[in-house]
C-alpha cells in the first residue's frame, strides 16, 4: 500500500487493518491525530514532559485494547482516544491531589493596543505576543470551561461527544463553552487585547 | 383498529440528536468571537516528539 493511498483510508478502516496486523495503519492513525490529542493533553497539564508521558500512555492503552480485540466499533476513533487521554489526565491530577490551575486574572501586564495590519516583522512580533497573551488567558479559565474549549477546538468533538467524555449533559457542556467564550471576551476587554492583532 | 405509537425511547433519542448541533448552538456573538480567536487557538497546537511516536510504533511491533 503506497503512502498516498493510506492517507485516503478512513480511521475505522485503518483500525480494522491494524487489528489484523497491518502496523503502518497505527502510524497513520498517530500521524493523523497526534496534534489534536497531544495539544489537548498539553493544554490541560501545561507540562511538555508530562504531556509526552500521558500521550504515550494513551496510545499504549489504544494499542493494547486494539490488539486484544476489545475495541468498540460503534464509537469514532478520535473521541475514543481523547476519552482515554482525558481519563489519564484526571488520574494524574487525582494522584497529585490537585486540580488544573484555576486562578484569577490578577498579575497580567496591560497589553498595548497597537494596530498593525501588514506582515512586517513588528507585526509578526505583536501577533505572536497576542497569541501568547491569549494562551495565558485560556490557561486562566476554570478547568471545566477550558476542558470543553480544548476538546471542542482541538479534538473537533461535538457537544454530545464532550458530554459523554466528561460525564455531564449536553446542555452543561454547551453552557461551559459559552461561559469560556464569555470569560475570554471579558478578560480580553479588561486587558485591552485587540483581536485585530490575532 | 390499529394502534400506532412512538416508543418513549425513540422520542428521547430524537431530542438528544437534535441537541447535538455544534456551532449553531452558540449565539451569533459567541460564534463570531470564537471565529476571531480560532487563529490564536490554532497557533497553540503542539506535537509530541518523534521519539515518543517511534517508541509507540516499536511497542506495537513488539507485542
Give structural notes:
The complex is a heterodimer of chains A (198) and B (63). With 198 residues, chain A is mainly α. In chain A, 69% of the residues lie in helices and 0% in strands. Chain A has 9 helices and no strands. Chain A has helices spanning 3-7, 11-19, 23-45, 48-67, 77-96, 121-139, 143-153, 159-166, 170-190. Chain A is globular. Chain A starts with a helix and ends in an 8-residue tail after the last helix. The model of chain A is unreliable at 101-118 (pLDDT under 50). With 63 residues, chain B is mainly alpha-helical. The longest helix of chain B is centred in the middle third of the chain and has 16 residues, at 28-43. Chain B is elongated. Chain B starts with 7 loop residues before the first helix and ends with a helix. Mean pLDDT of chain B is 74; it is low at 8-22. Chains A and B meet through helix 3, helix 4, helix 6 and helix 9 of A and helix 2 and helix 3 of B.
The share of residues in extended strands of chain A comes to under 5%
Q: Give the end-to-end Cα distance of chain B, rounded to a whole number of Å.
A: 63 Å
Number of extended strands of chain B:
0
Rg of chain A, rounded, reads 19 Å
Q: Characterize the overall form of chain B.
A: elongated
Estimate percent helicity of chain B. Answer: 55-70%
Give unreliable regions of chain B as ranges. 8-22
Poorly predicted tracts of residues of chain A: 101-118
Number of helices of chain B: 3
Q: What overall form of chain A do the CA principal axes indicate?
A: globular
Order of helices and strands of chain B: HHH
Element string of chain A (H = helix, E = strand): HHHHHHHHH
Structural class of chain A: mainly alpha
Count of DSSP-assigned helices of chain A: 9
The amount of helix of chain A comes to 55-70%
Question: Could you say which structural class the secondary elements and strand pairing of chain B correspond to?
Answer: mainly alpha
How many runs of DSSP E, i.e. beta strands of chain A?
A: 0
Mean pLDDT of chain A: 82
Taken as a percent bin, the fraction of beta residues of chain B is: under 5%
* Rg value of chain B: 23 Å
Report the oligomer: heterodimer
Amino acid at each position: 500500500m503506497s503512502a498516498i493511498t493510506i492517507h485516503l483510508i478512513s480511521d475505522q478502516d485503518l483500525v480494522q487493518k491494524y487489528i489484523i496486523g497491518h502496523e503502518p495503519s497505527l502510524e497513520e492513525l498517530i500521524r493523523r491525530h497526534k496534534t489534536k490529542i497531544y495539544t489537548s493533553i498539553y493544554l490541560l497539564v501545561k507540562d511538555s514532559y508530562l504531556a509526552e508521558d500521558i500521550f504515550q500512555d494513551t496510545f499504549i492503552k489504544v494499542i493494547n485494547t486494539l490488539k486484544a480485540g476489545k475495541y468498540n466499533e460503534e464509537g469514532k476513533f478520535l473521541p475514543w482516544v481523547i476519552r482515554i487521554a482525558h481519563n489519564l489526565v484526571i488520574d494524574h491530577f487525582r494522584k497529585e491531589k490537585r486540580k488544573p490551575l484555576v486562578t484569577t486574572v490578577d498579575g497580567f501586564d496591560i497589553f498595548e493596543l497597537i494596530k498593525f495590519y501588514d506582515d512586517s516583522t513588528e507585526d509578526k512580533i505583536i501577533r505572536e505576543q497576542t497569541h501568547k497573551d491569549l494562551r495565558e488567558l485560556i490557561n486562566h479559565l476554570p478547568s471545566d470551561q477550558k476542558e470543553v474549549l480544548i476538546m471542542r477546538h482541538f479534538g473537533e468533538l461535538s457537544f454530545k461527544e464532550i458530554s459523554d467524555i466528561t460525564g455531564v449533559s449536553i446542555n452543561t457542556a454547551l453552557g461551559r463553552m459559552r461561559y469560556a467564550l464569555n470569560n475570554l471576551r471579558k478578560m480580553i476587554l479588561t486587558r485591552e487585547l485587540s483581536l485585530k492583532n490575532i | 383498529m390499529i394502534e400506532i405509537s412512538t416508543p418513549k425511547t425513540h422520542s428521547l433519542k430524537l431530542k438528544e440528536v437534535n441537541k447535538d448541533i455544534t456551532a449553531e448552538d452558540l449565539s451569533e456573538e459567541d460564534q463570531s468571537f470564537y471565529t476571531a480567536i480560532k487563529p490564536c487557538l490554532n497557533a497553540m497546537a503542539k506535537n509530541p516528539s518523534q521519539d515518543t511516536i517511534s517508541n509507540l510504533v516499536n511497542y506495537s511491533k513488539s507485542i
